[in-house]
Write a structure and sequence with these properties.
- This protein has helices at residues 15-27, 47-57, 73-79, 92-108, 128-136, 147-162; strands at residues 3-8, 30-36, 64-69, 84-89, 114-118.
- It has 163 residues and is an alpha/beta fold.
- Strand 2 (30-36), helix 2 (47-57) and strand 3 (64-69) form a beta-alpha-beta unit.
- The longest helix is centred in the middle third of the chain and has 17 residues, at 92-108.
- Bound molecules: 4'-phosphopantetheine (PNS).
- Residues 7-9, 36, 39, 72-73, 101, 104-105 line the site of 4'-phosphopantetheine.
Length: 163
């Protein structure tokens, strides 16, 4: 039984994230999507919302589960008995930060191996940050996110406009 942890902020999940989860699910027996509870970034969606949106997006993938974690990723790796961590890489610019984090994580916990999965080129320019910016400015983001996320963004940003 090989279990991989797929950590991230997922604020919100995009089609790029979903593609990584789907492809990882073909390689590993179980994929645990791990939504970070104390990410540095100020989140637009709550942990519960982010988990629910990822769960909805992967409801047809029986070996993908969604969990949350507080604190260090290396501790979550032990707690969830994961064999590895997987992260998506979109471009060389992602690599520097990811490489540093992977090395630090392995230094902190010798069991924490990080694997990188290259993005499908169709999603190489998609990011949660850009999606939120497009949503906040009334643009069209529907082809970059799962349908439930598009609905949630519509609700969130039209609500924020009224305040
Ligand atoms: O989707 P993101 O924001 O790129 O994900 C980054 C995340 C949440 C995976 C990373 O910040 C993380 O692992 N945070 C938990 C705290 C931690 O372990 N930091 C790394 C120390 S080397």
């Amino acid at each position: 039984m090989r279990r991989v942890l797929y950590p991230g902020s997922f604020d919100p999940v995009t089609n790029g994230h979903l593609d990584v989860a789907k492809r990882a699910a073909k390689i590993f027996d179980e994929v645990l999507v791990a939504v970070a509870a104390n990410s540095e970034k100020k989140a637009a969606f709550s942990i519960e919302e982010r988990m629910k949106l990822f769960q909805e997006a992967c409801k047809d993938l029986p070996n993908v589960k969604v969990v949350t974690f507080h604190g260090l990723l290396v501790n979550a790796v032990d707690r969830f008995h994961a064999d590895a961590v997987i992260r998506g890489i979109r471009a060389a610019s992602d690599f520097e930060y990811e490489f540093q984090m992977a090395l630090m994580n392995r230094e902190l916990n010798g069991r924490c191996e990080t694997l990188f999965m290259m993005t499908d080129p169709a999603y190489s320019f998609v990011s949660s940050r850009l999606i939120k910016e497009i949503a906040a400015n009334d643009g069209d983001y529907a082809s970059f996110v799962p349908p439930a996320v598009a609905e949630a963004l519509k609700r969130k940003f039209s609500k924020e406009e009224k305040h």
